[in-house]
Amino acid sequence: MTQSVLEVSSPARDNTMTTINSLRCEFADSPACVDTFAPRLSWEIASEQRGWAQGAYRIWVASHPRLLKEGKADRWDSGRVESRRTARIAYAGKTLRSGERCFWKVQVWDQSGESETVSETGVWSMGILYSSDWKASWISASTPRDVVVDGRTLPPCAYLRRKFTVDQPIKSATIFATARGLYEMHLNGARLGDSRLSPGWTDYDKRIQYQSYDVTALLRQGGNALGAVLGDGWYSGYLGFDVQRDHYGDRPQLLAQLVIEYADGARELIVTDGNWRAATGPIDYSDFLMGEQYDARKELIGWDRPEFSDASWRSARVQSDSVTAPGHPALVGDSGPPIRVTQELRPIAITQPAPGAYLFDLGQNMVGWARLAVTAPAGTRIQMRFAEMLNPDGTLYTTNLRAAKSTDVYICRGDGVETYEPRFTFHGFRYVEVTGYPGEPSLDTITGCFVGSDAPDAGTFECSDPMVNQLQSNIVWGQRGNFLSIPTDCPQRDERLGWMGDAQIFVRTATYNRDVQTFFNKWIQDVEDAQAADGGYPDVAPRRVDDRNGAPAWGDAGVIVPWTIYHTYGDTDLISKHWASMTRWMDYLTIANPSGLWENERHNDFGDWLSIDADTPKDVLATAYYAYDAALMARMARAIGRREDAATYDALFTHIKNAFHSAYVTPDGKVKGETQTCYVLALRFGLLPENLRPLAAKHLTDDIAAKNGHLSTGFVGVGYLCPVLTETGYNDIAYQLLLNDTFPSWGYSIRQGATTIWERWDGWTKEKGFQDPGMNSFNHYSLGSVGQWLYQTVAGIDTEGAGFERIVIAPRPGPGLTYARATYHGTHGPIASAWDASANGLTMDVSIPANATATVFVPTSDPRTVTEGGRPAADAPGVRFLRHENGRAVYAVGSGTYTFAAR
Ligand code: RAM
Asked: Which helix (H) or strand (E) holds 263?
């Protein structure tokens, strides 16, 4: 019976054209090192039929795709489960083993129970499940000499290799590898994988990610060679301010294990141990902040091939700490997204501001490095320096990089066309200055290699105003480059840390632009790892460089980010996993602040960082965030069925709200400090009694008017400014702020040519030029947190409850825009909302994925004028009129595409 079901059911047979897409395991496409015993499986359904909903599913998991074809599920057959769920179904089959590959399909039925569809085959691979399955030892190169450049200690990169022989037919071969530091793995002359800067940043004293590589096709009978190059990276290189290096250790180390399964079932392991050989090669040094120097004359030709003679190499040094010993940091499978070069940029211009100094403009502030192409005599030294901005005389402006030298040097081999790109550094830049280049370079000399954590695209936003489209582009570029293993503040200066305040204010915007579920799942663990024994979350996670407990709106990321990721993707396991940690943070605040005002444990107390001529009292801001934490904790407690905790946090919220009210709020709705941020936080976090909300909103808009229609918010207030204005009936003022191009505004930076979000509203002004170079990045995403409002309000895509199961389409057209459109790929698939007010009335195009439902709000004073697909909306198939409220007709719809029109 099973056999026939899988064989006869195909998408083609289904006359409603229903297909199953996007099979995912642990929220990733074909993940390579899953290390949980019950991986969660998800899929999406696309159907042409309006209102399609799943009635039942059946999951099949097998050890070989052939078995699935034969209708056999030797690992797990879930049986038919009557359920609408399509996401996070936990595997419940035979116990999974380290390294095993699982192939799977899902079969679904619609609600009639008759029409059925079968997916294509998905796959995932298991990582190493038990630390005792690790047989490798940490190895390093014996102490090489250090180079000192400009007073900085910079060690050369180590090369490691190991020759081995294969003399039987192979069934499969997988390498598991990681480093304390950074590594690149090679096998038989090929670099493995396309990810960069592996293994990524975690608190290496607690947790280290490993990656895996399927090398079945690369092994050959006879001699083989494994190789690795090591760099310092976050582990031992310069990082953060104050010229500090060796944050976790002073030499990079490698841990690698090749698992070969032979055709006869035997297994063999080749692991890092004393049999490896070590040397230094062409990379004189490679450091995040300082850059890389590569001397091509020292290349070790063929070093990663079996034929190479490593007689002059030394034995690798085996570290004394054993992977299986208690207290060893946890080794965890990299759950993605991988750090990759995701785009190449061609320069748009070359200038020569000084003799012999060629300046390439890539047209975009970006993160990564430059690839150089050159033909020059051996020993020619070519230097590349990087900057985001130019001085008035057209030379590089590097002062804002502070102690980051950001200089790459290439020394030529001299044997024809040479191309070079660095391995273990990255820069934040738009301009590249090349010196030492022989002759005239061309646009082909330099290519910008854009690097970042490669989270899948999730959304698009576009509207009738080109400046707003540039703003959206600036937000996305800032996100793509600064989400590099962790959410960093900036990519260029000597900082590049996981600032919590920046992350919490931007996270909701981030979810719209990219699928950041696995990215933040990983970072939330970094945040928990960074929690102090007293319960304090830090300012930066991983907690290095700046060791203090977190300031208000910074430490709170430990609650806000998990909440946001849960709310976006619907994963309650995430809450359960971090619940104990979050309650420790709440206890820490509550014990220190019994009055309900957050008066103690404010540490760096940044306040509304980089606000403009507005001084939000720090206690007001702190207390507002404390209340917000309590409210989110109550909601999360409810989501995971902890009713008593929910009641406790509800009560805590009320306590803080009352304290806030009596300490800071006047009877006429003024909030102490009276800045825009004061009002925005009080309104957004629900800290005012109903009757004072309109008054407070009025004070907010009065302040905007007094500033001649301008904002004054810093990092903390900015994210909620436009949302609060729309919520309180001032959508037109929110639009005004969005469309401003006079100082201070988003538009002002764009008028000055910004291609990313600036750290400061006044990073550069016509009157004063550059702001204090002590802190002036031109690629900082925090002030880009308005992106959330573009998607949720201008285009109107949101979720009611967690996980975009019940979608809200509620665009709020406003003055200055004639159309806006957005797409967002939610848990169930693609959602679209577009409105156009350029002709008579308003049209709205809406698209809802199968298995989801939506509430659609159509702006109109008269619901009788609303049509869908040309007929009265109330009569349209699959559309149900609910009510008319606040100038909007409200409809319930199921999946499908809809065109509403209203007058
Ligand atoms: C700056 C960082 C970051 C901010 C902190 C308070 O140095 O760049 O953006 O969160 O300060």
From this structure: none
